[in-house]
Design goal:
The chain has ten helices and 15 strands. It is about 30% helix and about 20% strand. The chain is an alpha/beta fold and about 375 residues long. The strands form three sheets. The chain has an eight-stranded mixed β-sheet with strand order 1-4-5-6-7-8-9-10. A hairpin with a 4-residue loop joins strand 13 and strand 14.
Length: about 375
């Protein structure tokens, strides 16, 4: 492996420090009266009886694995969905009913058709992996967090899709769950793999996961409930996705950087129009529009959660995020493209980009001051 294509072993080591091993089996006690009363108020305030989100989550399903557990070379469990089978029931007093419902939605796993020519692998990791059919092969958007989960997702996809080479790899932004599985993608790639990322990607990806790696590990343990037992009284979900895959993390540097909004590239015969939104949800990030498909990928700028708007880490600055979402909405209103989400089970392909960006803008307005 030459200097242009390398794996960040140090990043993997830092991300995994203190995160290995099985989850503990201990559980907390019963819900207090305060908690029960609060959860009842939440349930009464939301239309939890609506099944629209569940219909959206099932739309386009091509195939689902009977059971999904991903292990490393030593047999350690990196990702497993069977322990969450208890979510099939109703929310207990110990669980926020809104989070319980979101956890049920995020239990959907499999290969989905967003629209003809665009597919997604959901439930194999915290993020979604998107596959776009090109002229010669597949364009992969966001290769998940770890090599193990990415390899499992791709192996499953190619049981049901044409087993063509991967010609292009796209990192939408500099968070590890959107680039960490890159080495698994390279196993399916042709010799001239084009790797696309926003300008500044390498600086931000390495500074966050290597220079700040120890702090990031501690933050992840608290934010993602790593030490909670999976149970109705413990770990249910992360909202954005089911959990974090603590596996082997790699990074293959990009060879094509997007530096400006409005930049256009043809990748494996597919036209892309990029919008640079760095300094918002992530320090280095872009969204893109696919005119051939009339589809829009909002990366993690817009989702059906308050993702990264109010985390322990938080975004660097709220105002650029709101401004970028406003620009996204303006760009998509006339086109009304179908939406592709980089994370979370849900409305991919079922709603337009302008619908989702409008809802996200309202969320941003509630937290940040945004110019109209």
């Amino acid at each position: 492996m030459d200097g242009k294509q390398w794996v960040c072993g140090m990043a993997a080591a830092l991300l995994l420090v203190g995160c290995g091993g099985e989850r503990p089996s201990t559980e907390s006690g019963e819900a207090s009266e305060y908690t029960r009363a609060h959860n009842r108020r939440v349930a009464q305030s939301l239309p939890l009886e609506s099944r629209q989100a569940f219909d959206d989550a099932e739309r386009g399903l091509i195939a689902a694995p009977e059971s999904l557990t991903v292990t490393d070379d030593e047999g350690g469990v990196i990702w497993s969905l069977p322990p969450y089978a208890f979510l099939a029931g109703t929310a207990p007093d110990t669980a926020n009913p809104s989070l319980w419902r979101q956890a049920q939605l995020n239990n959907r796993v499999g290969l989905f058709e967003v629209i003809p020519g665009i597919y997604q692998l959901r439930g194999f990791d915290l993020a979604n992996m998107t596959l776009i059919r090109g002229s010669r092969g597949w364009i992969v958007v966001d290769p998940l967090t770890s090599q193990e989960t990415a390899a499992a997702a791709l192996a499953f996809a190619f049981q049901h899709l044409e087993a063509l080479p991967i010609t292009t790899l796209i990192y939408t932004h500099s968070h590890v769950d959107h680039f960490g599985g890159a080495e698994a993608v390279r196993r399916y790639a042709d010799e001239a793999l084009t790797i696309v990322a926003p300008v500044g990607f390498m600086k931000e990806a390495t500074s966050e996961n290597i220079l700040a790696g120890t702090a990031m590990v501690r933050r992840a343990g608290y934010q993602y409930g790593r030490n909670l037992a999976i149970s109705p009284k413990g770990h249910l979900d992360l909202g954005l996705g089911k959990s974090v895959a603590f596996g082997s993390v790699g990074l293959v540097p990009p060879n094509l950087e997007v530096a400006h909004t409005g930049e256009r590239h043809t990748l494996d015969g597919v036209a892309f129009e990029f919008q640079l939104v760095s300094g918002s949800e992530a320090p280095a990030e872009f969204t893109f529009y696919l005119p051939d498909f009339n589809a829009f990928c909002g990366a993690e700028m817009v989702s059906q959660t308050m993702h990264n708007l109010y985390t322990l880490r938080g975004p660097r600055c709220g105002t650029p995020w709101g401004g970028a979402v406003t620009s996204m909405r303006r760009l998509s209103v006339s086109r009304r493209p179908r939406s592709i989400s980089a994370a979370i089970t849900g409305r991919c392909g079922a709603a337009t980009g302008s619908d989702i960006s409008s809802a996200a803008r309202v969320t941003c307005i509630s937290l940040f001051t945004i110019r109209p």
